[in-house]
Amino acid sequence: MSGEPRAAAAPAVDRPVVSLATVLKEWGRIGCVGFGGPPVHIALLRKLCVEDRKWLDPQEFEDAIAACNLLPGPASTQLAIFCAWRVRGRVGALVGGAAFIVPGLIVILGLAVLFLGDPPVWVKAAGAGAGAAVAAVAVQAGVSLMPAGWQRAPQQSNRWRWVLYLLLGTVAAATIGPWLVLLLVACGIAEAIAQRVPPPARRGAARGLPMLAAAGLGGGVLLSVAWVAIKVGALSYGGGFVIIPLMRADAVDNYHWMTGEQFLNAVALGQITPGPVVQTVAVVGYAAAGIGGGLLASAVAFSPSFAFVLLGAHRFDRLRDNRAVRAFLDGAGPAAIGAILGSAIPLALTLTQVWQYCVLAGAAVLMLALRRGPVLTLLTAAAAGVVIVLAGGALPH
Q: How far apart are CA 255 and CA 292, in angstroms?
């Protein structure tokens, strides 16, 4: 049938039966060693599922990447869940997705206890150093996404509108905080209108957001944690660093769960731990309500990814080819890239010591000029912070 995915046309007998134990082992291994974010996760999943085990053919895997990139939320997590669904069905998707997420969640909550409690001086210094480099990591993340988006812009949209959405996203991330998602939705709707593709579902989503916000703001700490997490998991087009301004405005400015310096530490922890960057939300939840808040935030943030795959994986080919969805992403996509770039501004303004700006400058050279990865850069910045503070430099206030 036309609604089935291309790869699904192959008879089921052509594919080996994969045990849940194998899914748990292999996806858990990737969850433990997946340092470096989505590019590393995608490479590891491709090696496992396409090259080594040949559970998926290359075209199906590439189509799955494209479909996951059209969805809001963490694309590499959705890809991991999809691959597990493809080899073992819905139960496999649940087991594989959990195995991919849980190792990083355990590590990041353990580090949150260390960094957000009353740590020794050297731990504070390491956090101050790594936190100083986060703005550079955000800039590099945004810059790395720009070439592909710029090349796609003339296909249906145009480059003038693409630049406009990029600039709007940059300004919004630096100024309007928790309402950034409305700007992303507005850019998507504007582009759909410009391409003459009406997106009624998006209009309904945009109308519902303020009501959800009001519910989240008025229902206690755990409900507030859930509201922040659902924005991260279901409404953050572009994934990764686009969630930073969404979380910072709530965690630091609105609810006061964390200081600006603690939030920088949380972002750094999300980068240097294995698994998806979205795990940062678990640190925010921990700051708000302890271990229970961290677990709740993670569960809520990742539940949309499971829902998208469990309910819609068999329609991923339709999603990719849907003109309305494509037009919406032509507007929301560049705005999300702009939001990633713009998130660097409030992150940099959080710094309070001169030496932190020096570390930030060094991190920018490492990432943008020397093209080093975020894990190496953040660890180097953490080491620099320890050396500077132990040599007499002041800790941030």
A: 17
The tokens describing 68, both together, are 């996951």
- What b/e string do you get for 304-327 counting C-beta neighbours within 10 Å, with b at 16 or more? bbbebbbeebeebbebbeeebbbb
Range 55-63 contact pairs with CB under 8 angstroms and sequence separation of 24 or more:
55/15, 55/16, 55/18, 55/83, 55/86, 55/87, 56/7, 56/83, 56/86, 56/87, 57/7, 59/6, 59/7, 60/5, 60/6, 60/7, 60/86, 63/5, 63/6, 63/7, 63/316, 63/317, 63/320
Q: Select the more confidently predicted residue: 62 or 223.
A: 223
Cβ-Cβ contacts under 8 Å for 281 (sequence gap 6 or more): 228, 229, 232, 233, 243, 247, 297, 298, 301
- pLDDT confidence of residue 353: 92
State the pLDDT at residue 48. 93
Q: 237: closest CA among 273, 279, 186?
A: 186
**What is the share, in percent, of the chain residues with pLDDT greater than 90?**
35
Residue type, position 175, single letter? T
pTM of the model: 0.75
Contact between 182 and 213 under an 8 Å Cβ cutoff? The reply is no
Say which residue, 116 or 297, is predicted with more confidence. 297
Distance CA 386, CA 382 (A): 6
- Cα distance between residue 61 and residue 63, in whole Å: 5
Question: Of how many residues is the chain composed?
Answer: 397
Torsion of CA 197, 198, 200, 205, to 10 degrees: 70
Q: How far apart are CA 127 and CA 265, in angstroms?
A: 5
d(CA 90, CA 82): 9
- How many whole angstroms separate alpha carbon 91 and alpha carbon 17? 13
**Which amino acid would we find at residue 260?**
G
Q: What is the mean pLDDT of the chain?
A: 83
Q: 213 or 57: whose pLDDT is higher?
A: 57
Maximum separation of any 2 CA atoms in the chain, in Å: 70
